Structure formats: structure tokens, C-alpha cells
């Protein structure tokens, strides 16, 4: 994937992702690329800064300003390597956070009805007013969940897996 900043003749600048530079050229020549603000198809690449990835887990950061040396000549600060590695994780704090999240999910599920594989149909029915609104939880295939979201149905995945009631000991 490649991202371009594009600019229309009305000076609107917007960002668009393409599979490749060739894909951009192909779509632009066929009039398929339009301004996100005004709809104009007269667009071209805008000036943009290149994106350079740092090697590994480091990035180069320059010192904040140039400083004059004793003889009056300006000096250029050298880039400094800075680690992007994540800070060490406190295992006890992480366990506490996960436990609190699991407890919150358990409280929410205790006030919700398990609908199993009927989740998508029931959520959609509630959204369209065919059924009274009520808290439910169940199972939906990723495609079903995506379709619900596209329709504007308010759904969200649970952070932890749920064992269906019929599968519990």
C-alpha cells in the first residue's frame, strides 16, 4: 500500500491510499479519484514529506537547536539514537488490569441475555425496531459483525471469550 497527499484545483488537500503508484495513475486517468471535499476529479499529487522508517527499534532525533561555537561558527547537532522499545511491563499491574476488565465483562454479561448464533438477527431486529431493545450477547461470524457495523447497528466484540451456557459444566 502507498499513501499520497492529493490536491484538487480548489486547493483542497486530502490523503488517499492506493495499492501501488500504478494503481493511482490508472484510477486518476479513468476519473475515479475525486476530491474528498468537493468531488472534483481534477486532482494531482500534492507536495508531501517522504516517510522514512527507522532501522529496527530506533529512530534518529536531532538535538533541538543549533549552537554557536566559541569562534562564532554555527555547529550542527548530531542525530541521537532513541530507542522505541516499549518500557518494561509490570506483570502485577497487568494482571490487575486484566482481572478488572474480566470482572467488568462478567458484570455486564450477568445483566445480558445469551442469544447464541441468533445474535446478528436479534441485534438487527432491535436496531430496526422489530424487537424491544435489551442487552444481549452471543456469537456472530466476522462477516456478520462487519455487516452489522456497516448498517449502523451498535455492536462490539467482547475482550474475553465467552463459554456458551450449554457448554458449561
Key traits:
single chain; 169 residues; alpha+beta; three-stranded antiparallel sheet; two-stranded antiparallel sheet; 4 helices; 9 strands; 21% strand; flat
Put the structure in a nutshell.
The chain has 169 residues and is an alpha+beta fold.
Task: Describe it.
By secondary structure, the chain is an alpha+beta fold. Helices cover 28% and strands 21% of the residues. The protein is built from four helices and nine strands. The protein has helices spanning 21-29, 91-110, 119-127, 142-151; strands spanning 2-8, 13-18, 43-45, 58-61, 67-68, 74-75, 80-83, 113-116, 136-138. Strand 8, helix 3 and strand 9 form a beta-alpha-beta unit. The chain starts with a strand and ends in an 18-residue tail after the last helix.
Biggest sheet, spatial arrangement of strands: 2-1-3
Report mean pLDDT, rounded to a whole number: 80
Q: H/E series, N to C?
A: EEHEEEEEHEHEH
Q: If you compute it from the alpha carbons, what radius of gyration comes out, rounded to the nearest whole angstrom? A: 27 Å
User: What is the assembly state of the chains in this entry?
Assistant: single chain
Reported for the largest beta sheet, the result is:
3 strands, antiparallel
Report the portion of residues in β strands. Answer: 15-25%
Helical residue percent?
25-40%
What is the end-to-end distance? 48 Å
Compute the number of helices: 4
Number of strands: 9
- Given helix and strand content, the structural type is alpha+beta
